[in-house]
Amino acid sequence: MENSEGVKIESTVVTEEPLISALDIALFVVIITVAYFWYFKRDKQSSSSEKKPYTIQPSSLSSIEQTSNSSFIKKLKSTGRSLVVFYGSQTGTAEEFAGRIAKEGARYKMKGMVADPEECDMADLVEMKEIQKSLAIFCIATYGEGDPTDNAMDFYEWLQNGDADLEGLNDAVFGLGNKTYEHYNEIAIYIDQRLEELGATRVHEIGLGDDDANIEDDFVSWKEKLWESVCSHYGIEETGEESNIRQYKLVDCSEVLPERIFSGEISRLKSYENQRFPFDVKNPYLSKIAVNRELHKSGDRSCMHIEFDIDGSKMRYDTGDHVAVYPKNSSELVDKIGELLNADLDAVFSLLNTDEESSKKHPFPCPCTYRTALTYYLDITSNPRTHIMKELIEYASDPKDQEKLKLMASSTPEGKKEFHEWILRDNRNIVHILEDLPSVKPDLDHLCELLPRLQCRYYSISSSPKVYPKSIHITAVLVNYTTPTNRVNKGVATNLLAQLIPTNDELPQPTIPIYIRRSQFRLPPKSQTPIIMIGPGTGLAPFRGFIQERDYARKEGREIGEMVLYFGCRKKDEDFIYENELQEYVANGTLTKLHLAFSRDQPEKKYVTHLLEQNADELWNIIGEKSGHLYVCGDARSMAKDVHSIIVKVVMEKGQMTNSQALNYVKKMEQQKRYSADVWS
Question: Which of 177, 215, 291, 621 has CB 3.0 to 4.6 Å from 209, enough for a Cys bridge?
Answer without folding.
Answer: 215
